[in-house]
Structure formats: C-alpha cells, structure tokens
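queue> holo job accepted (flavin-adenine dinucleotide)
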Amino acid sequence: MPTRPRPRRYPARYSAFSLLRHGLAGDHLVPAWRDRELKNSYDVVIIGGGVHGLATAYYLAANHGITDVAVLDKGYVGSGGSGRNTAILRSNYLTPEGVRFYDRSVRLYERLAADLNYNVMFSQRGHLTLAHNDSSLRTMRWRAEVNKLEGVDSEVVGPAEIKKLVPYLDVSAAVRYPILGALYHPPGGIIRHDAVVWGYARGASGYGVHIHQNTEVTGIDVAGGPNGRRVRGVRTDRGDIAASTVINCTAGWSTLVAEMAGVRLPIQTFPLQAAVTEPVRPFLDAVVVSGSLHVYVSQTDRGELVFGASVDPFAGYSMRGSLEFVEGLAGHVLELMPSLAKVRLLRQWAGLCDMTPDFSPIMGRTPVDGFLVDVGWGTYGFKAGPVSGEAMADCVATGRTPDIIAPFGVERFAEGRLLGEKGAAAVGH
Ligand SMILES: Cc1cc2nc3c(=O)[nH]c(=O)nc-3n(C[C@H](O)[C@H](O)[C@H](O)COP(=O)(O)OP(=O)(O)OC[C@H]3O[C@@H](n4cnc5c(N)ncnc54)[C@H](O)[C@@H]3O)c2cc1C
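queue> job finished
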C-alpha cells in the first residue's frame, strides 16, 4: 500500500483585505483543479468526469492512497447528467438493498462540505411523495416500513400534515387528483450539483489525480488469453493510454463505452427533461413529488422553482427540450398548485439517462478482467455519487466487491435476481 499523499491546500476563505488585494492584483481566479500533461500510462483510467467518476477518483486517493489515476471526459467536467440534474437527494427507496445503499450516500453527503472543504449547499428540507390513489398509498406504506427497518426516517402522513408542510398545495377533495396521503422523508432535500462536481474534482486534483477534459475515449484495448479477457488500456482522440484498470462512469453513454470492451449491458438510453421558473419569494420548503402526475417541484435558494418529470417516452440521445414536455409539465404542476399559474418559465433542458430493466444501477466487475462499470444510473444517480465512488474505490483497491454494491452486479440479469426499484424511482429524481 503506498503512503497516503497529502492533499494540496487551498485557501479556506478570503478576508476583505485579501479579496481586495487579489482583486487589484488581478490574480483572484484560483483554478479549482490543475491542468496536467496527459501521460501514456496510469494505474487507473476513469472514463467520465461526472459525479461518479470524480468521486471514485477522490476516494481512490483519499481512502486508499491510489493517485496514479486519470479521469477522462470528452466534454467538460459536469457536462453530462451531473450538471443537468435537479439535485434531489433522498434514501427512501423500496428494497432493503437500495435503502441501505442510498442511506450511506446521504450520510456521506451530510459531511461532504467538511470532507472537501467546499460548500456544497446541502439543504435537508424534507421530501414528500404524494399518493393520489389507494394503490400508491399502499406502496408508500410499504416503503415507509422498509425504510424504518433500515433506520431511515420515513413515515406516511395525511392531508392535514401535508398542508402544514406545504401550505400552497391544494389538498381539498374536490380536485381531479385528490391527495390521500404522502410518504414524508425528512432527511431528503436538495444540493448544489455543480458544487459537488467541482468539489470532488478539486479534492481529487489536490491528491495528484489527473483530470483531462476534452479527451474522448474512442476504443478500449482488451487482450484475450486462455484465462479470459483482460483490459490493457484505452484509445483516445489524444493518443493511447495503458492502464490495468479502466472504469466506465459514463451514464447516458455507458452502453457505447462498454461495447468498446466487448461488454453488453441491458440498458436503454432516454432523454429526461427539466425546467426552471423565474425566481419568486421563498414559499416552498419541502421537495414535492407526485408519482401519479409524473411531476416534482422544489424551490432553490435563489427562489426559482425547479420542475422535473419522467423520461421522454422514446429512447434516444437527443438533449433538446420539447414543447410537448412543457405543456404536460405545466398542466400537472397546476393540478397540484393552481396558484403558480402566472409564474413564468425561464428555461428548460434535457440530459441522458441509462435505464436498466429494474431501475437499479449496475456496478462492479465485468467479464473483462480490470474493466469495471458504475452505470445504469437512470434518472436517480446524482444522489448515489458519494457511495458509488467510495464503493468503486474499495473494489479497485481491495480486489473484492464491497457488500453494499454486491446486489448490483451485472450477473443479476442472467441469474434472474432483479432488484425492482420502479415503485420508488419511476419519476425522475
Ligand atoms: C433532467 C435530469 C434530472 C435529474 N434529476 C436527478 C435528481 O434530482 N437526483 C438524482 O439523484 N439524479 C438525478 N438525475 C440523474 C443524474 O443526473 C445522473 O444519474 C448522474 O448525474 C449520473 O452521473 P455520472 O457521473 O454517472 O454521469 P454523467 O454526469 O452523465 O457523466 C458522464 C460523463 O461521461 C462523459 N463521456 C461519455 N462518453 C465518453 C467517452 N467516450 N469518453 C470520455 N468521456 C465520455 C460525458 O461527457 C459525461 O460528462 C437527473 C438527470 C437528468 C437528466
């Protein structure tokens, strides 16, 4: 085991005088991470500079002292789902395996600002999943019981309690989709997604990890032998790189990258859209989700309302917003909060989601020795960044699959051990 490196120190804060001095001197822009020369060999190459790739690099260095690591991204850091998501964190899933996994992530997020010395603005404001009919109320009760058994704070609350938490919600019975109850999850909330990505990039770079933006992986070298296939490195548009470990953290592009190593994944890629309004006075504390209406809403610290929904109804790689999406979204939002009728939408966008058949991720080793995957994050993977990074780093450093990700291996599809999370993950967040 190499000795643990000391991270590079960054100034924790500026005083008014140092700000003035830096401002006048024109040297106030301190790059968050260093640009370095691309080497032709690394111990570990991570493909994808989103939260998963960067968190894996950070924990490899911080927890295991493995720093000969390169994170390669064909665009810029955070240009995939990690910079496009609606930043909702929660752990109130349906299966015990899922609840345990996401709970570990929420706990890591709770201390992330201190660990990275970077303000990630995690606001645990509570999360409500509304039930508009008996069958969804039953699923909420089921989730609440599984959550409690795993030590996660969740309970089913009725309309009066919901009204107290979100006074602007229409909880009357005289509406098309009456609210019968909700799953209330106090630890859930929102975070500043780009700060998380930059914080991990800065932390990893401080330990000596190389982050190479605008570096596209175009092929993966795999050697065949009597004992099976083994990864040798990657080919990029900037030259070949040798590596004995290559990790695929490319979310919406994960099948294309896995196929470069000859690994097929049971994943389909769908666009997911979201939209944001002009800022309005703060009135909404909790995150509100409606599975039946396929919509969710939260309010940022700046006052904007962030809306999301389910994936587009067709597979594809387009990242364009559509008018159909905005029309459907607006209708559903107004079913819940008619008082928002005059608020103006500011912008909409889309990202790519790699959906598995059981709405759970695919993590760990593959049939190609040294080629690992951390993919299948669908519409819900931002919240899993820290735990995935921690577990993938453990997997590389120890050569063993950590218990917390063992249920998510790719072999589960061949063995018929699916881990159905659709009841807790059908609406994208
Ligand atoms: C609109 C929207 C809302 C969402 N809301 C939430 C939410 O509220 N909560 C939540 O938990 N999740 C949410 N998600 C899902 C979440 O954004 C993703 O699951 C998560 O960001 C995936 O992170 P990642 O690091 O695995 O991948 P990404 O952040 O997508 O990073 C993958 C990177 O790989 C790079 N790449 C791809 N191919 C190559 C190649 N050949 N060579 C080099 N680099 C390559 C890409 O440029 C990209 O930067 C949402 C997603 C969207 C689109």
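queue> The CA atoms of residues 334 and 340 lie 7 Å apart.
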